[in-house]
Amino acid sequence: MKILVCSSYLHAWNSVRPEAEMFVEMVKQGHQVTIATQPGAEYIPRFIECGLKVIELYPTKKVCIQTIKTLHKELKQGHYDICYAFNSKTIPNAAFACIGTKVKLIAYRGTTGGLYRHDPSAYLTQLHPRVDGIICVSNAVQKDVVKRVWKKKQNVVTIYKGHQLDWYKVAPTARAEFNLSEKNIIAVCATHVRPSKGISVLLQATHFIDNPNFHLILAGSGYEPHFDEIKASPMAKRIHYIGHRTDIPSLMTMADFQVQPSISGEGLPRTIIEAMANGSTSVVTTTGGSPELVVDGETGYIVETNNAKAFADAMNKLISSKAKCIEMGLKAQQRLENYFSSKETVKQHLSYFSKLIKQK
After folding, report:
1. DSSP 8-state code for residue 172
2. Which of 4, 29, 85, 186 has the fewest CB atoms within 10 Å of its CB?
3. CA nearest 97: which of 125, 74, 124?
4. Using one digit for the tens of pLDDT, what is the confidence trace for 64-99?
5. What is the mean pLDDT of residues 250-259?
6. DSSP letter at 62?
């Protein structure tokens, strides 16, 4: 089949690779794929090397007339079967470009919330009448979207982004950087902080942890509103705020476990996936797609959202036993390989594309 992809590939390599490599694999299986993306995107040489056609085209706004005209011409002349758009800029432009063609338009959805029938802007993205199907990153997202769409609810599906363990193989960050050793128990929280990330819940949980060998590393941007909460923690001297980092997978490899205290809005958190890939277990909450990644009590712990005491109790189970951290981390890694593989993702996408093409 012939597929036109409209997406952004300017993000970090690990961020775009699960999506990008899916289309590379489709070409290897004999399908034709064209990528419309930003000029200068780092992944372009990889696409070209693997036989994908690249159009350096990306909308400057949600309705970009020049982008729509160029995409429409490409769709008409190329006789595409599928057009697949991924974000709030590419979906509306692809939708208008698809009008007057027979191509099936698929929109991607990666987060819960924010999609409402009373919001006019929603009819430029997933609720656009030209959209034929929606692929969601998790079951939590799929359930949310099904409540919003007016038609073709059966075409709103979950397909997990696929991964390969060797994409994430990195050496651990040296514990000595933080004046720590193998005797210490280390947890990492890596995020760009927003209210939905639940950082206050995590810092409240530290009031219920009294192991002097435990240290918490906070990586990412936006923690400034929480500095007073950090100072108020009884383990304040063992909380290390390190700001934005580009070595998150290495930090996850170093850590005994990672924590995800989110209270809303998660799709399928990449930090959990990076931890799983590197053999690190997790403590997560019930929000969004996090519980779809973790098997409670086996590959990590899932606790009630917005419950600091419950979050601390789960952390304490791991803090008390390095052996448990290692055992659960290895099971988490195996779960990623078994259930979230790139091969399975490609297979499910192609099956879904074929199903849509057959629909009148």
Report:
1. P
2. 29
3. 74
4. 999 999 999 999 999 999 999 999 999 999 999 999
5. 95
6. S
- Asked whether the beta carbons of 277 and 14 are under 8 A apart, the reply is no
Residue 93, number of CB atoms within 10 A of its CB? 29
- Predicted local confidence at residue 269, as pLDDT: 87
Interval 8-16 mean pLDDT: 85
C-alpha torsion angle, residues 56, 57, 60, 66 (rounded to 10): 140
Helix (H, G, I), strand (E, B) or coil at 257: strand
pTM: 0.88
Helices (H), 167-269: 199-205, 227-232, 248-254
Tell me, rounded to whole angstroms, the distance of Cα 146 from its chain centroid: 20
Report DSSP state, residue 150. Answer: S
The structural domains of the chain, ordered by start, are 2-162+341-358 (3.40.50.2000), 166-339 (3.40.50.2000)
Asked if 294 and 282 count as a contact pair (C-beta separation under 8 A), the reply is yes
The bridge status of strand 82-85 relative to strand 281-285 is unpaired
Residues near 30 by Cβ (< 8 Å), separated by ≥ 6?
Answer: none
User: 143-179 burial, b for 16+ CB within 10 Å, e for fewer?
Assistant: ebbeebbeeeeebbbbbbbbbbeebbebeebebeebe
Mean pLDDT of 308-335: 97
Helix, strand, coil percent values for the chain (each to nearest 5): 45, 20, 40
Helix (H) or strand (E) holding 136: strand 133-136
pLDDT in tens, 29-44: 999 999 999 999 999 9
- Selection from 23, 36, 173 nearest residue 91 by Cα: 36
- pLDDT tens-digit map of 218-237: 999 999 999 999 999 999 99
